[in-house]
Batch of 4 targets.
Target 1
Amino acid sequence: MAGVQNIQSRAELPPRRLFRLTNRRREALVGYLFLSPWLIGFLVFLAGPMVASLLLSFTQYKLITPPIWIGTANYQRMFSDDLFYRSLRVTSMYTLISVPLGIAAALGVALLLNQKIFARGVFRTVFYLPSIISGVAVAIVFAWIFNFKFGILNYFLSFLGISGPNWLGSPRWALWAFVLMSLWGIGGNTVIFLAALQGVPQELYEAAEIDGARAPVKFWRITVPMISPAILFTSILGIIGSFQTFTQAYILTNGGPANSTLFYLLYLYKNAFNWFEMGYASALAWVLFLIIMAWTLLFLRTSALWVHYEGGRDR
Amino acid sequence: MATQTLRRPRRSGRRVARDTLRSVVIHAVLIALGSVFVLPLLWTVVSSLKEPGAGIKFPPQFFPQTFMWGNYRRVFELIPFVTFFRNSVLITSISVVGELFSASLVAFAFARLRFPGRNFLFLLLLATMMIPYPVTMVPTFIMFKQLNLVNTYFPLILPPFFGPAFSIFLLRQFFLTINMELDEAAKVDGASEFRIYRQIILPLSKPALATVGIFSFMTYWNDFLTPLIYLSESSKYTLAVGIFYLRSFRGGNELAFQMAASVMFVAPCIIMFFIAQRFLVQGIVTTGLKG
C-alpha cells in the first residue's frame, strides 16, 4: 500500500515540483504585497524615525538652522540637568505607586465580581465605563473635582472629618492626585482579570477545599499562579503607559506646582515644541526608550520565575 | 459534581447563615465601590446643568437648583463647536477606515499566507508594540515639516493607513481561528488571495473588525498629543484639543460650560460603548489573555 503511494507520488514529482516552486514564489510575492502597508509604515514611521532620532540626539537642532553635530553633549547635559532628574523621579515614583496599586485594585474588584453576585454585567459596566473616557475629558473634570476649596472631593472628605489637601496646588499632594485619578481608570484591567479568573478551573479550588485550604492559601497558591500571565501582561502595558503619561499632566498642572508633576514626556514635549531643542528632545526620547525596554525585559526575563503557563513553559 | 452532592447534606444552618452574610458584605462593598466609580460621571452630567458661578460656590452643591439646559447651547456660542466636531468626525472616520483596511490586509498575510520570513516579521511586529511613541515623535514631526504638511490633517490620517501593530495583532489572532479548509477550497475553485480575503475572511470576521474599529475609533477620537503637536490653526482643531482650549476662550472658564462640552465630547464614545459592549469586552479579553 505504502509502496504504491510512493511510486505514484514519485511518478508525479517532476512536473508537480516545478509548478509548486513557481506557485510558492508567487505566494511569497502575494504575501509581501498584502504585508506592504505595514512594511512601508515600519520603514517610514518607525525604523526611519528611530534612526533619525538616534542621529539627532547627537546634534543641536533648533529647526531654523541645520543640525550641528555635538557628539554626546546632549547626553552629558542630562547629568547636570535638574529638570531631567526631576522628571525622571516624578515619572518613576508615579509608575512605582500607580501601576502596582492599579493592578491590585483591578484584581480586587475582579475578585469581587467573580463571586456569586446579582447583576454582574451592570457592575462590570460601572467599573469599565470610566476607562473608556479619554484623558482630556477626565483631566478637565478632575480639575474641578480636585479643587481645594470648591471641589466635591474635599467636600465629601469633610463629611468624614478630613480636611482635604490642596490637591493640585501643593507639591506634596499633586502627584497623589494623579494616582487617584489613574485608579478611576482600572476598568480595562478589571475586565482582563475577570476573564482570567473565570478561566481558572473550579476543580482546583474544590480539591484544595477537601484538603482544608483556607481562602488566603487558595488565593496565593491557586488564583495568583493561574492568572499570572494576565498580571504580567497588565504590568508591562501599565509601565509602558505610565512612563508616557502626558495629557493629564499637560492639562491639569502643566508640570507644576514647583515641577512636582513634571512628567518625563511633558518635559520632552516642552523641549521639542516649546523650546525647539530637537536634539536634546531626541536624546531624552532615547533614554525613555531604553528605560522602558529595560523594564519590559526585566519583567519578561523574570517571568519564568513567577508566571505560570498552563501546559508548559514555551507557549 | 460528585463533591457537590457529597457536600450538600453537610450544609448546616450555620453555614447557610455565613454564606448569606458573605453575600451581603460582597454586595455592599460592590455597591459602595461602584458608587465611587459612578460619582464623577454623574457629577459631570449634573454639573453641566448648573447655573454660572456654581463652580466657585461654597459649600459645593451636587445637584443644580435649576436645570440650565441652555448651557449646552452656550458652548456652541463660546467655541466653534460644530467646526471642531466636524474636524474630529472627519479625521476619526478616515483614520478608522484606513486602520481597518491596512490592518486587515496585513493580518491576512500573517494568518493565512505563507512567505519566507513570516515568523521573523511577526516577531518584529510584536516588538514594535513596545516602542514608545515619543521615540519617533520628533523626527516624524521634522519629516512632516519638511514636507510642508504641518497644520494639515495628513500627519494625523496617514499613519493609520500603514498598519498599526496592535490592530494587526488582534485581527491576526482572529483570522487564525477561521478554518483553513475554506481557503483551500476557494483556491481549488481558482479564487485569488485577494478574493479569499475579500469574500471569505472579511465577511466571517465582522465581530473582530467591529472590535478593532471601536478601539481605533476611541483612540483617534480621544487623541490629544498628535493634534496638539501638528495643528496650530484653531479652525482646524479636533474636539479633544478644542474643549481643552475652551477655558482660554472668553467666558469659557466656567464649570457648567466645561462639563457640558465634556459631556458632548465623550457622548459618542459612550454611545458606541453601549452599542458594542459585547465586542469590546471580548476584544480586551483576547488581547489580554492571548497576548
Target 2
Amino acid sequence: MVSKTNEVKVYGKPRMRTDFPLPQCAGCHGPLLGKIISEVLEEMDLDGKTIAVAGVSCCAPGRLGDLAWDVMGGAHGPTVAEAVAIKRMRPDAFVIASAGDGEIGAIGIQYFMHAMLRGDKITTFMVNNACYAATGGQLAPTTLLGTVTTTSPYGRSADNEGYPLHAAELAAHIKGVAYSARVAVYSPAAFQSAKKCIRKAFQKQLDRVGFGFVEVVSGCPTNWGVQPTGLGKYIEEKMLPEYPLGIFKDVDSIA
Amino acid sequence: MTTRILMSGNEAAARGALDAGCKALFAYPITPQTEIMEHMAKELPKVGGVYLQVEGEYAAIYMTYAASLTGERVMTASSGCGLALMSEGISYCHAADAPLVIVDVSRLGPGIGTGGQHGQSDYRMVVHGGGNGGYHSIVLAPADCQETYDTVQLAFYLADKYRIVVMVLTDFMIARSEELVETRRLEFGPLPAKDWALKGKANKGGRFDVHRGGQTWATTVDYFTEHQELYRKIEASEIRFETYKTEEADFLLTAYGSMANVCHRAVDLAREQGLKVGLFRPISLWPFPVTELRALARKSGKVLVVEDCEGQYVDDVRCAVEGQVPVHLLGIWGRHNKTAWGVIHPERVLEEVTSLYGK
C-alpha cells in the first residue's frame, strides 16, 4: 500500500476506546462523555496513570472495559467514596469517579458530600439525564417538576417528591471544592466547551487543589421518548432553563 | 528476644494488623470496637499508611473494598449494627474477590442492643453473612488477646492466599481484657502476586484491569461453580479448632471466643468433681469443623453449647451433630444477673453440666 504522507488525520476515535461494544441505547449522550474524558486524558498524557471508578449507571463510561484504563466498577451509591479510597492509597494516580444523578444525588449523596467536605483530590462526573435510565426511566433527584416517569405517574410534584437537585451549584458552596461546572454534549459547541471545562477540572486534581466536579446534562432518548435528533431541542427548551450551563466555582487554592 | 507488651484485645487486633503490613484503615467509631481505630489513628501515619475516619460504615466498607483493589493490605473494623450496615459492601467484596480483613467486636441484641456491652449475638450475621447473593467469608474466632494478635495476622495471609474476605470475630470481654502479648511478625508462606491490582496501566506495561464483580452475563454459572470450588478448597485446608480434655470424655462442652474460656474453667471444675467433661472450641467458624465436632459429639454422647446470646452458634452445632446425640444450650439466661453487665460464670456452666450429666 502506498503511504500518503501528506494526509493528516483530523478525526478518529480516542486510543483509549477499545473494541468492546458500547452498551448504550442509540442516541444516548453517555458515550460522548466517555469520548471527551478519553480525549482529554490522552491530550494531557494521563491515561496511563488513571484509575477510574465507574458507577452503576448506564452512562458511567468505561465500566465494562469499553475504555482502556484501570477501572473499578463501583457499587450503586458509593462510587465517589471508592474513588476517594483509591486516591488516598495511590496519591500519584489520576483518579476519576463517574456516576449518574441517582447515584450521586440520591443513594450516594452522603459520599459525595463528605468527599467534597474533605476536599478529596479526585475528579467526579455526574451524568444528569433527569431520570434513572438503566432501570427504565424512574424518578431521579434531577427529574423536572411535572415530568411523568414510571414511578411518578402523575408527574413530579413539589409537594410529594420535592425539588430538582442542582448538584453543580451545591458543590460550589463547599469549601473543599476546587472546581464545579455544568456542561452538556448535545451540540459541537457544547461539546467543545465541555471539553475545556473537563480539562480545567483535571488540572485541579493535578495541582492538588481540591475536589473537582463536572455535572453533565445528558440526553436520554429512550426514557425521554424523544428521537435522538430532537435531543438538542429538548435540552435547550426543558433542561437548560432548570440546569443552566456554566462554571460555578474555579479556584487555584483553598485557604 | 521476644517482646511482650501489656495490651487489650482491641489493641492486639490493631497491632496484629500493623505487624502484618496493613496499610490502611477506614472505619467509623462504635463501641466496643473504637480502640482499634484509636490505635490505628496514632500508628498508621507513622508507617506511611492511610487512616480515615469516614462518614459511616457504608463508606468504611466501600473504601476498604476499593483500597484492597490497589493491592495493599487493608482492613476495617466494626460491631453489631455497624457491621449490619456493611453487609451490602461485604457482598460486593465477594463478587469482586477483594482480599481484605474485617474485625467485628460483637455486640449484643438487635437494633442498638445494649450499646456495646458484652454479648455474642453477631455470630449469625458474621458467619452466615448479612449480604445478598450467596458467599462465604472465612471467619476466625480467637479467644484471648495473644490469639487475637496472631489471628489478625493469619487473617491477612488467608485473605491474600484465597482472594477472599476474612472476618475476625471477637467480643467485649476479649476486646477490653488486657494481657501480655508477644509481638512478632508471623510468617505463613508464599503468596500469589497481586498482578490484578489497580495502579494505572503505565505501571503494568500497558495492561489494564476491569474490576466489576465476577459475574458477567455470558459466564454467570461459572462464577458460582468457581466459587464453590474455592470454598471446597478452603474447607479442605483451613479448618481450625482446639480440644481440651476430650479423651475419655462422656460429656462435651462447646463454645467459641470468650465463652470458650469460661467453659475451659468449667471443664477443670467438673474434672475436680470426677465428671469426665471435655471442651471443643472451633477457631474457624467458617469453614466450620463439622466432621471433627460430630465425631467428638458421638463419642461423648451429650453436648452442651454455651454462648452469651439467645442461641445462634447452637444452630451450627445441631447441624453438625445431625441429631445423633442430644444438644443442649446454656444461653444468655445463664448470666449471674439480668443486666447488660451480667456474665455466664464457669460455676453456672458446671451447674448446667451437673443437671444434665448421666441423664
Target 3
Amino acid sequence: MTPYPKRRRLQCLLSLGILLLAVLTASCAQSSPAATGSRSPAETGAANSAASMEAVHVSYLDLTANITDLRTRVTDWQKGDDNGLNIAKEKVERIQAILASVTWPSLLMPTAGAAYAAVAPMAKALAAQDKPAAQAAAETFGAASHDLTHAFYGDWLPTLKGKSFTAMAPHATYLDLSANLSDLQARVGQWQKGDESSLNIGKEKLDRVRVLAQHMASFKMLAKPLQSITAALPAVAAALDHKDLAAAQSALKPLSEGSHDLTHDFYEWMGKTTSANDPACIQAAYLDISRNMTDLRARLTQWQQGDEASLNIAQEKLDRMAAISGHTGWPVAMATAIGSTRATVEPIRHALKDKNVAQALTAVAPLATSSHDLTHAFYGDWLPKAYAPAQAAHGMTGMGNMPGPATGGQPAPTSGVVAFPAATPVAAHVDVEPHSSSAAGKQAAAVASPATKRAVIGGFGLVNGLVIATAAIFKAKTGKGRAVSGQGGQNS
Amino acid sequence: MSANLLKHRTLLRVLQSGWYPLVFQAIAGAVFTLIVFQLLLGPESAHDNLGTALTWVLWWPLIPILFVLLGRFWCAVCPFGALSDLVQKFVGNVRPVPVFLKKYGIWIIDGLFILITWADHVWGIVENPWGSGVLLLLLTTGVVVSGAVWQRRAWCRYLCFLGGLSGNYARAGMVELRTNAAICDECKARAVCYTGNEKGPGCPMFEYPRRLDSNAPCVLCGACVKTCPNNSIEIRVRPPTKELWFIRKPKFEEAFLAVVIMGIVFVQNITMLEIWQPMLAGLQRLTQTTSYAVNFTVTFVIALAIPVAMLAVAALVAGKLNGQTTILNFARFGYAIIPLDIAGHIAHNLYHLLAEGKAVVFTALPLIGQPMPSGSTALVGTPAIQMLQYLLLALGVLGSLFTAYRIARSHDGAKAWRSFAPYGVLVSVLGLINVGLFLLPMATRM
C-alpha cells in the first residue's frame, strides 16, 4: 500500500479534526439544554405549549372574576340577602368548572390548587347555610385569588413575554390589558381624591399593563396602539414613583388615548375576522360578550335617566356585541342563547338610531334572558366538556390537572408542582387553524422543544462533518483539488 | 465613459491587498456566528432576539440598498462565500459544475427564492428565530456540499437565492467592474484573471473578466484586480439602471425572476397589512378550509401570477406592435421591472428598518447584562417613513419607465414608442398597486 504523501495525510487529519468538532458540537448541543435559553416544560407549564397559554389566561380571568363575585355574594348573604346564597352556590359551581377545565401550568398550580381546596369547604358551608364556615372559606378564596394573581402576573405571564399567539385570538390578553388600563386610571383618580393605598395598587396595575403589553406585542394588528401604550408607561411610572399627581395625570392622557385606540382597533379587527372553533376563543368571547351585554343594559338605563353620553357608549357596546357574536365559532351548546342575543341587536340598533328610549328599553329586555341562558349554557353545558377531548388525548380525566372532584373532599394540594400531573399542551388547539395574523400560519414551527433543537443542530453538525470527511477522503484518493500547480491560485 | 475609481492609489492598494476582502469576511463571519447562535439558542421570541433584529430588521432592509450602491459587493464578504472558499481550500474536490446547473441554475434560484418565501409564510422563518436559524443551517449545508464538490463559488453563481436576487439588482447598480479592452487585447498573460496566479485565485464566479459585460456575475471580490499583471481592471461609477438598457442577450428566466420578485413584494406587503385578515377569512369561505397553508398558497400563486400575467400581456401587445415574439419581448422588457422591484423591496423594508430599527440595540443590551428597554423601537415617525416610501416608489416607477423606454429605443429605434407603450402602462399599473399597498397600515416584524 502506497502511503499518502505528507500533504494528503495532513488534509485527512484536518478533515477528521473538523468531523470531530462537528460531533462535539452535536454532543454539546445535546448536553446543555440550559444553553438554549429556554425553560423546561416544568418551569413554564403551558408557556411551552403556546397552544394552551390563552386557555390558561382566559381561565384565570374567569376564575378571579368569579371568586370576587363569590366573596361579594357571601358578604351579601352574611348581611341578610338570601338571594346571595343561591348565587354564591352557582359561583362555586362555576369556580369548580373553571378550575377543572384547563391544564394549569406548574407555576400556577400551588395557588390554583389552594383555590381548588377551598371549593369543597365553601360548597359544604353554603349547603349547610353555615355562615362562619362560608366566611372562612371566602377568606381562603380571597387569599388564593390574591396569590394566584401575583403568581399569574409576576411569575407565569413574564415567561410568555413575546411568545407568538397560536390558534387563539389575543382576546383574553386584550380583555386583561384593557381592564388593567381602566383600573390604573381609576386608581390614579382615587389617589387624587386622597386614597393613598390606591397609589400602590396603581403601581401594581402599571406593572401588569407593562407585562401584558409586552406579551401582546406579537399581535401585529394592534402594534400601533400597543406601541403608544408602551411608550406612555415610563412617564406614568416615574410620576407614580415620585408621587407627582400632576405629572401622573398628564402622563395618563397618552395612555388613555392608547387604550382607546387599542379598543377601537381590537374590535375593528374582530369585526373583520372569524375565529377558530377553539375553547379558549369561545371562553374569551363569552366573557367579553357577557360583559358588553351587562354594560349595554346599564348604559341604556343611564340614558333613560338623562345621561346623553351613555347613548353613544351604548351604541359602541352594541357594535362590540355584534362583532364578538359574529367573530366567534360558537358551540352547539351555546347556539340558542347566542341566536337570541343576536336577534336583539338590530331592534336595539334601530331604537338607538331613532333615539327612542322606550323602544330601546323594550328591545333590550330580552337580552336579560339571553344573558342568563348564555351563562347557564356556558358554565353548565359547555365548559365542563370543552377541554375534555384534549385532556382525554393526554390520558387525563376531564378534571384538568386538579386531583379529583373538589366536592368529593379530596385533599388539598400542598405542593402543586409535585402533586399534580405535569402541565400538558391542550391538544384540541393543535389542529385549529389560526385566524389572527399572517404570523399565525408561521407558528407551527414557532416553538421547538429543546430536544428537537438538540436533534436538529446535532444532525446538521453531523451531516456537514460527514460531507467534509467524505470530500477529504475522495480528495486524498483522487488527488484532485490541488491548487493550480506552482501558481498559488485556487482554481484550475 | 466615467472615471476609473482604481486610478485612486489607495483604493487600488486596498483591492490588491491580501487583506481584501478577508477583513470584511472576518467581520461578517463574526457577526454571522453571533446571529446563528442567537437564532438557534437565544430567546425564542423574535421580539427579544438579536439574531432576528440583525437579520431581518437591519441586514435584509440594507442589502438591496447596498446592491444598488455597490453591486454585489455583499457577495464578496458574505460568510457563505467565505465558508465555501474555506471548505474548498481544505477538502474541495474541484469538480466541474454539472451542465445541468449551468443551464438551469437560474431556474433553480427562481424556484428556491419562491420556495423560501412560501416557507416563510407557512412554516415561519422571519418572525421565528428558530425558523431563521434552521434556514441558515440548511444554506450552510448547501454551501459546504457545493464547496466540497465543485469548483470555485458554484453555490454563489448557480444556487444561492440571494445571489439571483443580487445579480438582478446589481444590474441596476451604480458601480461596475470592467476591463480596459485596449489593454486586454495586448495581454500575453494567458488569462491569469480566470485561472489565477501567485497573487491570487482566478475569478471565483467562473467569469473571464475580459468578457464581462454585466454586474450580475461579478461580486467585486478583487481577485482579478490582484491577478491582472497589466492593471486592466477598472471600477467605474455609472448611472443607475444603465446596464439594463443594453442587455444583448436577454434571458427569459432572469426576466421571470424580475417579475416574480414584484409578486413577492406584493405578497410580503399584503400579508403584513390589516386587510389580510378579511382576505384570509374570505379565502377560507371560498376554499372551504381553514388550512393556512392552503389559503396562503392560493394567495401566493395569485400574487405571483398577476405581475407575470401582466408582463405577458404587455409582451403580447408589444409583439403585435413591434413584430417580435412574445417570449422575446417578455425577456427583453422583464428587466425593466427591476428598478420598481428594488424600489418596492426597499420601500417595504424601510418600514422595518425605520420603525423597528432600535430593536437592534434593544435586543443587544441583554447580552451585556443590561435590561431590555420597553420603549418604541421606531427611529422616525410613520409619516416620515411613508414619505420616503412614496419617494422611493416614484423613483422606481420613473426608473422602470425610463429603462423600458431605453430598451425599446436600443432595439426598435424610431419605433421605440410602439414597443414602450404597453410596458409604460404595465409599469404605471404596478406602481399604482404598490402605492395602494403602501397607503395601508403595516404590521411590524419584532
Target 4
Amino acid sequence: MYLLSTGALLEATTGTHPTLWPWLRGVQLRDIHLSVISVGRVRHELQAASAAPANAALLSTLGGMVARARSARTLLGIDERVADIWAKLLDYPLPVVEPDGQPGELDDDNRLVVATAIEHRLEFVERTQPYHAVLAQSLRVQTY
Amino acid sequence: MDHGLAWTINEQLSRSGRELGHVAALSGAFSATFDRTRTGGPWAEAKEVLLTQFRWLLDLVNKGGALVVGVAPEEQVVVISMRDLASLLALGNGSISFAEAVEMRPGFEPVEAAPRLRQRARASQSYATSGGRSPDAP
C-alpha cells in the first residue's frame, strides 16, 4: 500500500514519466493512496499564472486520478492523529534536494503528507531525498 | 452495485448528449421499416436499412463508445462492448492498475512534459510566524 508524494503526483499527471508511470502500471488501483493536501498543492502548481499550455491536460488527468482514488476510497484527508505527527515533524530538519540541485527543506505542506504516510503505515512514493534517512525509523519509502 | 462501477457509468451517462443522436437514428430506422412493411413496401429492402443502421451502432460500441438508450433517467440503459464491461468490472473491484484506471478515463491525454515540484519557503506560511496576525481566510 502506497501514498504518492506531492512531487510524484505532479509528475504522474503527465502519464508519461519514464520510471514512475511504468511502476504505476504494476500497482493495483486500490493500493495507491492520494493525500488531499497533495491534490490541492498540485492543482495550485498547475493553475499558476506562469503555467504551460499543456497544464490543462495535466489538470484533467489530475481530476481523473482524484476521481479514481475517491471511488477506490484511497483519497486520504487529515485527522487528529495525522496532525499530531505533523506537529512533531515541523521541528525536524528535513533536508531535500530541489529540482535544480540546490539544497532545501521539506516544506510544511509536504510534512503533512509525510505525516499521513506515517499514520496510515503507507510506503511513501518519492524521488530519493536526504530527509528519508532522518525518518528511516518511521517512514518506508519507495523511490522511482 | 460497486461504487467504482457506478461512478464510471455515471460518467458515461453524462456524455450521453451526442450519443442520443445515434439512438434517434436507430429509432428512425425502426419506424421507417415498420411503415414500409405496414404499407406493403418491400420487406427485404427495409430490413437491409435497419441492419445497416444496427451494424453501424454495434461498430461504434465495439470501438469503445458507450451508447445510452432512452431519455428518462429511470428508463435509460447503457450499451457497451463485452471488453469494456470486463474493464468496468475490473475497475469496480480495484483489480486493475492505477495507471490503467487513469488511462481508461475518457479524455485522458498523455503529455510529454516534466513538471517538478519545488518546496515552498517555510517562513512564508502563517504558522511559522509568531505574534503576527494571519490574513483573513477566503
